[in-house]
Amino acid sequence: MLSRYFAGPLRLAPVLFLACQSAPASAPGAEPSAVPVKGTGVASQAAAPTQAPGAEEAGVAAPDSAAADYATYFVVVADTGRSYPALRSQMLGLSRQFTLPIDTLGRYFNAQKNRIVVPENDADDMYAGEYYPRRFPSHSLSLEYLNEYQDRAGAPTMALVTGIYEKEASADSALAVLGKADKGVFKVKANVYVGCMH
Protein backbone atom coordinates (compact mmCIF):
# COMPACT_ATOMS: atom_id res chain seq x y z
CA MET A 1 0.00 0.00 0.00
CA LEU A 2 2.73 2.49 0.94
CA SER A 3 4.71 1.63 -2.18
CA ARG A 4 1.96 3.30 -4.16
CA TYR A 5 2.77 6.62 -2.43
CA PHE A 6 6.55 6.35 -2.37
CA ALA A 7 7.38 4.71 -5.70
CA GLY A 8 7.59 8.00 -7.61
CA PRO A 9 9.70 9.96 -5.10
CA LEU A 10 12.12 7.04 -4.66
CA ARG A 11 12.70 6.86 -8.38
CA LEU A 12 13.49 10.58 -8.44
CA ALA A 13 16.03 10.37 -5.60
CA PRO A 14 18.97 9.34 -7.84
CA VAL A 15 18.11 12.11 -10.30
CA LEU A 16 18.04 14.74 -7.55
CA PHE A 17 21.29 13.44 -6.12
CA LEU A 18 23.02 13.65 -9.50
CA ALA A 19 21.74 17.19 -10.04
CA CYS A 20 23.66 18.46 -6.99
CA GLN A 21 27.24 18.49 -8.23
CA SER A 22 30.18 20.21 -6.59
CA ALA A 23 31.07 21.88 -9.90
CA PRO A 24 29.38 22.51 -13.22
CA ALA A 25 29.89 19.99 -15.98
CA SER A 26 32.90 20.53 -18.19
CA ALA A 27 32.33 21.49 -21.75
CA PRO A 28 33.96 19.48 -24.52
CA GLY A 29 37.33 20.99 -25.23
CA ALA A 30 37.29 22.94 -21.97
CA GLU A 31 40.37 23.16 -19.83
CA PRO A 32 40.60 20.18 -17.46
CA SER A 33 39.48 20.95 -13.93
CA ALA A 34 42.65 19.79 -12.21
CA VAL A 35 45.88 20.74 -13.91
CA PRO A 36 48.94 19.46 -12.11
CA VAL A 37 51.86 21.70 -12.91
CA LYS A 38 55.26 20.05 -12.79
CA GLY A 39 57.61 22.29 -10.87
CA THR A 40 61.10 23.03 -11.85
CA GLY A 41 62.51 23.93 -8.59
CA VAL A 42 24.08 32.33 5.28
CA ALA A 43 21.56 31.10 6.89
CA SER A 44 20.85 31.88 10.54
CA GLN A 45 21.41 28.98 12.88
CA ALA A 46 19.18 27.63 15.62
CA ALA A 47 20.24 28.49 19.18
CA ALA A 48 21.77 25.06 19.76
CA PRO A 49 21.91 22.99 16.57
CA THR A 50 22.61 19.32 16.98
CA GLN A 51 25.67 17.87 15.30
CA ALA A 52 25.54 14.91 12.97
CA PRO A 53 28.06 12.16 13.80
CA GLY A 54 31.46 13.24 12.49
CA ALA A 55 30.11 16.62 11.39
CA GLU A 56 32.11 18.55 13.97
CA GLU A 57 35.29 17.81 11.98
CA ALA A 58 33.98 19.50 8.84
CA GLY A 59 32.02 22.14 10.73
CA VAL A 60 28.73 20.99 9.23
CA ALA A 61 25.56 21.08 11.32
CA ALA A 62 23.02 18.27 11.47
CA PRO A 63 20.95 17.63 8.33
CA ASP A 64 17.76 18.91 9.99
CA SER A 65 19.32 22.30 10.68
CA ALA A 66 19.11 25.27 8.32
CA ALA A 67 22.89 25.51 8.67
CA ALA A 68 23.43 22.04 7.19
CA ASP A 69 24.18 23.59 3.81
CA TYR A 70 27.14 25.53 5.24
CA ALA A 71 30.55 24.46 6.46
CA THR A 72 33.29 26.33 8.25
CA TYR A 73 36.51 26.11 6.25
CA PHE A 74 39.84 27.89 6.44
CA VAL A 75 40.88 29.50 3.17
CA VAL A 76 44.53 30.44 2.60
CA VAL A 77 45.00 33.38 0.24
CA ALA A 78 48.37 34.34 -1.25
CA ASP A 79 47.27 37.67 -2.71
CA THR A 80 44.27 39.70 -3.83
CA GLY A 81 43.68 42.23 -6.56
CA ARG A 82 41.58 43.23 -9.52
CA SER A 83 44.04 42.27 -12.26
CA TYR A 84 43.49 38.71 -13.44
CA PRO A 85 46.70 38.57 -15.52
CA ALA A 86 48.84 39.66 -12.53
CA LEU A 87 47.23 37.13 -10.16
CA ARG A 88 47.44 34.37 -12.78
CA SER A 89 51.14 35.04 -13.27
CA GLN A 90 51.68 34.88 -9.51
CA MET A 91 49.65 31.64 -9.36
CA LEU A 92 51.84 30.03 -12.03
CA GLY A 93 54.95 31.12 -10.13
CA LEU A 94 53.70 29.61 -6.85
CA SER A 95 52.78 26.43 -8.68
CA ARG A 96 56.34 26.09 -9.99
CA GLN A 97 58.00 27.10 -6.72
CA PHE A 98 55.99 24.79 -4.44
CA THR A 99 54.96 22.12 -6.99
CA LEU A 100 51.28 22.79 -6.29
CA PRO A 101 48.52 21.76 -8.71
CA ILE A 102 46.25 24.37 -10.26
CA ASP A 103 42.52 23.65 -10.29
CA THR A 104 40.49 26.02 -12.46
CA LEU A 105 37.25 24.00 -12.21
CA GLY A 106 37.18 24.46 -15.99
CA ARG A 107 36.76 28.24 -15.65
CA TYR A 108 38.62 30.97 -17.49
CA PHE A 109 38.79 34.77 -17.51
CA ASN A 110 36.34 36.32 -19.98
CA ALA A 111 37.86 39.69 -20.93
CA GLN A 112 34.57 41.01 -22.38
CA LYS A 113 32.73 40.34 -19.12
CA ASN A 114 35.86 41.16 -17.09
CA ARG A 115 34.99 38.12 -15.00
CA ILE A 116 36.07 34.56 -14.17
CA VAL A 117 33.43 32.28 -15.74
CA VAL A 118 32.50 28.76 -16.71
CA PRO A 119 32.69 28.38 -20.54
CA GLU A 120 29.61 29.58 -22.44
CA ASN A 121 29.21 26.14 -24.04
CA ASP A 122 29.34 24.25 -20.72
CA ALA A 123 26.87 21.38 -20.35
CA ASP A 124 25.57 23.02 -17.16
CA ASP A 125 23.24 25.68 -18.60
CA MET A 126 22.71 27.25 -15.19
CA TYR A 127 26.36 28.31 -14.82
CA ALA A 128 27.50 28.53 -18.44
CA GLY A 129 29.05 31.96 -18.85
CA GLU A 130 28.82 32.68 -15.11
CA TYR A 131 31.12 32.40 -12.12
CA TYR A 132 31.02 29.17 -10.12
CA PRO A 133 32.94 29.24 -6.82
CA ARG A 134 35.38 26.75 -5.41
CA ARG A 135 33.59 25.40 -2.35
CA PHE A 136 35.24 22.25 -1.03
CA PRO A 137 38.52 21.48 0.73
CA SER A 138 41.55 20.89 -1.48
CA HIS A 139 45.22 21.76 -1.52
CA SER A 140 45.45 23.43 -4.92
CA LEU A 141 45.75 26.88 -6.45
CA SER A 142 42.89 28.78 -8.07
CA LEU A 143 41.65 32.29 -8.70
CA GLU A 144 38.38 33.10 -6.95
CA TYR A 145 36.32 36.09 -5.89
CA LEU A 146 37.23 36.97 -2.31
CA ASN A 147 33.64 37.85 -1.35
CA GLU A 148 32.80 34.13 -1.57
CA TYR A 149 34.84 33.67 1.60
CA GLN A 150 34.95 37.10 3.22
CA ASP A 151 31.74 39.14 3.39
CA ARG A 152 33.43 42.53 3.63
CA ALA A 153 35.42 42.02 0.42
CA GLY A 154 34.32 43.96 -2.63
CA ALA A 155 32.62 42.00 -5.41
CA PRO A 156 35.33 42.53 -8.07
CA THR A 157 38.23 41.63 -5.74
CA MET A 158 39.91 38.42 -6.89
CA ALA A 159 41.92 36.16 -4.61
CA LEU A 160 44.74 33.74 -5.32
CA VAL A 161 43.54 30.84 -3.17
CA THR A 162 46.25 28.34 -2.26
CA GLY A 163 44.02 25.92 -0.39
CA ILE A 164 40.75 25.34 1.42
CA TYR A 165 41.05 23.33 4.62
CA GLU A 166 38.66 21.69 7.06
CA LYS A 167 41.08 22.02 9.97
CA GLU A 168 42.63 25.28 11.04
CA ALA A 169 45.92 23.52 11.87
CA SER A 170 46.24 22.41 8.24
CA ALA A 171 45.62 25.96 7.04
CA ASP A 172 48.21 27.25 9.52
CA SER A 173 50.78 24.77 8.18
CA ALA A 174 50.18 25.92 4.61
CA LEU A 175 50.33 29.53 5.78
CA ALA A 176 53.72 28.95 7.44
CA VAL A 177 55.22 27.39 4.31
CA LEU A 178 53.84 29.98 1.90
CA GLY A 179 54.67 32.81 4.28
CA LYS A 180 58.38 32.16 3.66
CA ALA A 181 57.88 33.13 0.01
CA ASP A 182 55.35 35.92 0.49
CA LYS A 183 54.65 37.83 3.71
CA GLY A 184 51.23 38.90 2.40
CA VAL A 185 49.70 35.40 2.67
CA PHE A 186 46.68 35.28 5.00
CA LYS A 187 43.96 32.96 6.25
CA VAL A 188 40.20 33.51 6.21
CA LYS A 189 37.76 31.59 8.39
CA ALA A 190 34.85 31.21 5.99
CA ASN A 191 31.27 30.02 6.28
CA VAL A 192 31.04 28.35 2.87
CA TYR A 193 27.81 27.23 1.20
CA VAL A 194 28.21 23.54 0.39
CA GLY A 195 24.60 22.72 -0.47
CA CYS A 196 23.14 22.09 -3.89
CA MET A 197 23.81 24.90 -6.37
CA HIS A 198 20.91 23.97 -8.67
What does this structure look like?
β4 and β5 form a beta hairpin. The protein has a domain at 67-100 and 134-198: Alpha-Beta Plaits (2-Layer Sandwich). 25% of the residues lie in helices and 21% in strands. The model is unreliable at 1-19 and 25-58 (pLDDT under 50). The protein starts with a helix and ends in a 5-residue tail after the last strand. The longest helix is centred in the N-terminal third of the chain and has 18 residues, at 2-19. With 198 residues, the chain is of the alpha+beta class.
Brief account:
25% of the residues lie in helices and 21% in strands. The protein is an alpha+beta fold and 198 residues long. The strands form three sheets. A four-stranded antiparallel beta sheet has the order 6-7-2-8.
Q: What CATH first level of the domain at 67-100 and 134-198 would be assigned?
A: Alpha Beta
Show unreliable segments: 1-19, 25-58
Order of helices and strands: HEHEHEEEEEHE
* Backbone shape: globular
Q: Kindly provide the radius of gyration, computed on alpha-carbon positions and rounded to a whole number of angstroms.
A: 19 Å
Structural class call reads alpha+beta
Q: Helicity level, as a percent range?
A: 10-25%
- Terminal-residue CA separation: 33 Å
Which percent range describes the beta-strand content? 15-25%
Largest sheet: 4 strands, antiparallel
CATH architecture of the domain at 67-100 and 134-198: 2-Layer Sandwich
**Mean pLDDT, all residues:** 77
Q: What is the third-level CATH name, the topology of the domain at 67-100 and 134-198?
A: Alpha-Beta Plaits
Tally the beta strands.
8
What strand line-up does the widest sheet have? 6-7-2-8
User: How many helical elements?
Assistant: 4
Signal peptide: 1-27
Keywords: Signal
